[in-house]
Amino acid sequence: LKLMPYERFRPETEAYGQWQTNAPAGTVTDDTRHKMVLITALRDAQANARLPLTQQDLARAYLQFADAPAIVSRPQYRDLCEESFREFAKAAHWVLGNRHLEQAAPPDRIWGGVPTCCGQMTMLPLAALYAGRPEDAYRATYELSFFDVGPAKDINAALVAGLSVALVQPKPTNEQSRQAVWHNITTAMRTTDPYQYDQIPFVTRPIVQWLDFASEVARDATDRPKRLYERLLRDGQVQYFWESHFIVALVFSTLEFCNYDPLAALAMILDFGHDTDSGAQLLGALAGAIHGPNLFAQELQKPVLAQLDADYDVSLEEWVALLDEVGKA
Fold first, then answer.
1. Which of 98, 196, 204, 254 has the least CB density, counted as fewest CB within 10 Å?
2. Rg (CA), the chain
3. Against a cut of 0.90, is the pTM above it?
4. Is residue 269 within 8 Å of 280, Cβ to Cβ?
5. How far apart, in Å, are the Cα atoms of 47 and each of 72, 123, 273, 320?
């Protein structure tokens, strides 16, 4: 695995991608910026004794992100931020009681009702507050994610529940123990169901449907990556590559295909293309929770940490300390 600069392939700024021209290797995209919003909301709620976090707290954080010092001090970010957060801002205004339609819109309208991976971009750090408590992690994600609709409500909440279990697993030492750990995670995702999705008549629970699909695709592909990609594209019911179910299908099928070797699976996700940042960040979160940060070589870690600081004044150490404090509160 190697981080590459953006200059050769995507030199211009993109609202949902990199906010720098000719961005260096390690520059983050919207999947990380949405986590910045969550962290800001948690930090403010802690400082003002408003924990646990509410949907209104998160909505306010979305609306105020454009006024954060990291954005204001970099004037080239302002228009990019407004474009990238426009849909979220409309839903956030509605959550906060604003019904002026030039500013607000019902959350069910967001992204035309497509069940997206928005909750995966924003909510994964919540797992650290509920380590080993998958039902609490699920409920908190479900409640806060005003930008998730339809099947994404269940899928994305189940992913955070699984991540909360990943954080308390013993570190695997061989292929067999890797498989056991991932089995524990997917079992938590399947069985954590406080709102009884599995009891709805005539329909299959969304997260179960797509975990089953991912496993079937991996078994069918055996040692043929091309076959895996073809099955995902043909049978993954994908209209947009950032749909919540498709990111799950991509991540868990490649993991099983690669015998749960996370770095091999990460390489395959990047080779697949399309919404690479969303697939990579979900796999990276799960694999990092299991194996620890040293899974990723320093030549991968250092550029990302440096760019987080240079581009957004973000310290990952401060994030970790905050999550630890809030989790203990």
1. 196
2. 19
3. yes
4. yes
5. 22, 20, 41, 16
Q: H helices of 124-195, where?
A: 134-144, 151-166, 175-191
> How high does pLDDT run on average in the chain?
97
Nearest to 185 by CA among 209, 208, 206, 169: 169
Contact 171, 294 (CB under 8 A): no
Q: Across the strands, what pairs with 243?
A: 116
Residues 6+ apart with CB under 8 A from 85: 62, 65, 66
For helices 55-64 and 86-95, what crossing angle results, to 10°?
140
Contact indicator for 50, 326 with CB cutoff of 8 Å? no
Identify the CA nearest to 39 among candidates 329, 232, 325. 325
Question: Residue 209 CA to chain centroid, in angstroms?
Answer: 20
Phi-psi region of 216 (alpha: psi -120 to 50; beta: other; left: phi over 0): alpha
Tokens for 150, please give them. 């339809």
Q: Which among 225, 39, 220 has a CA at the least distance from the CA of 125?
A: 39
- Enumerate residues 6+ apart whose C-beta is below 8 A from 254: 218, 228, 265, 268, 269, 272, 283
pLDDT digits (tens, 9 = 90+) for 282-328: 999 999 999 999 999 999 999 999 999 999 999 999 999 999 999 99
The separation between CA 164 and the C-alpha centre of its own chain, rounded to angstroms, equals 13
Distances (CA, A) of 320 to 143, 194, 207, 214, 235: 23, 28, 28, 31, 39
- Nearest CA-CA partner of 40 in 62, 12, 71: 62
3-class secondary-structure state, position 116: strand
Give the tokens for residue 156. 């994305």
Residue 282 DSSP SS3: helix
Is 208 within 8 Å of 198 (Cβ atoms)? yes
Between CA 100 and CA 70 the distance in angstroms is 29
